[in-house]
Amino acid sequence: MKNALPATPGTPRKKAAAAGPPRTPVARPKGSEPSRLEKLQKIITSSLEDDKAEKIVTLDLEGRAAFTDRMIVATGLADRQITAMATHLEEKLHEAGLKRVQIEGAAGSDWVLIDAGDIVVHLFKPEARELYALERMWGADLDEEAPASA
User: Fold this and answer.
1) In the beta sheet, which residues pair with residue 28?
2) Domains, the chain, ordered by start
3) Within 10 A of 120 (CB to CB), how many other CB atoms are there?
4) DSSP letters along the chain, please?
5) Residue 116 CB neighbour total at 10 angstroms
6) Nearest-angstrom CA–CA distance, 54 and 104
7) What is the pLDDT along the chain (150 residues), one digit of tens a residue?
């Protein structure tokens, strides 16, 4: 039985159009060094784990979205925790050589967005995460055909 979550509004075609033209994913040979993207993803997830983020989910959007290759979604319980997570992420990404990190909403809101170029990080309070449901919007269900309306 599939997940009983309600369907996200919008058809797959509309979502794909909003995502932009598809990009061709680049396969990494087995046994090779992790890519820069994989290293940044590891830095981000480790930082979030260190800051006690909950329900960390990584979505691979490579070839599906024009604006990013990966999306990481995590939950924080309080404004102060979410702000600290964003600050620590920014510091660690700068140390890793990423000079342009943009943060939106860090001044005390339910949703903070960190744009690290090829990876976009969303930090939510639990209620906001449930409301926006990014995992359902960008999850594997995007590729499934929407039921025809009556």
Assistant:
1) none
2) 50-143 (3.30.460.10)
3) 21
4) ----PPPPSS-HHHHHHHH-S--PPPPPPTTSPPPHHHHHHHHHHHHHHHTT-EEEEEEE-TTT-SS-SEEEEEE-SSHHHHHHHHHHHHHHHHHTT----EEESTTT-SEEEEE-SSEEEEEE-HHHHHHH-HHHHHSGGGGSPPPPP-
5) 23
6) 20
7) 444 445 555 555 555 555 554 544 455 555 545 688 899 999 999 999 999 999 999 988 887 777 888 999 999 999 899 999 999 999 999 999 888 888 988 777 788 999 988 899 999 999 999 888 888 877 765 444 444 444
CA distance 103 to 91: 12
Residue linked to tokens 């090829």: 118
Copy the structure tokens of residue 36.
């820069």
The encoded tokens of residue 150 equal: 């009556």
